[in-house]
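Re-run with default settings, no changes from the original entry. Doing this only to confirm the output is reproducible before filing.
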Amino acid sequence: MHAAMHGYAEMIDLLLLHGAKPMQLQHDGRAAPGLAALFGRPAALGAFLRVDPELLSAVDGRGRTLLHWAVASQHLVTLKYLLGRWGAATLLEVPDAAGDAPLHVCRGPDDVLLLLYHCGAQPPSLSARNHAGHTAAEAASAAGCSEVATLLRAARAIRAVWRRLGRRRLGRRLWWLVVAT
């Protein structure tokens, strides 16, 4: 756990080589790879994922994936690393134990933009609800993150307009034009 929190990739390599179990849970339900994501340690994440790429989709005692923890940390380098290098966009719809998908735990506008940009051909549902019955925009609003809530509502509105018009490719370009201005 200490090596993951502080990003000691070489130590993680040695521990894994000698049989350490990365998904062994702490008393609070977290596992070492999740701590590396939470504390923004991409080198430590790389050490875990190079040994076992399946850790990307593994869930800890709280039902969270590495993508959940990276989004919760608001550490953009870690988030970009998981999305770009390891293809974590496939986990955008995976809920944790509270029913929250990664978009539900976004608290920074940059996180939202990264998740929506890297979603690929299948964008995440912006109308999905967690166990409390909230969409990602409603969860952000309830947490006092008005910028995030506004971005998610705007993304949902833009998607709805372009679905009606049937111009997906043009819609994506328009979306990024709107976001960039």
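The CA atoms of residues 135 and 172 lie 22 Å apart. The longest helix spans residues 146-165.
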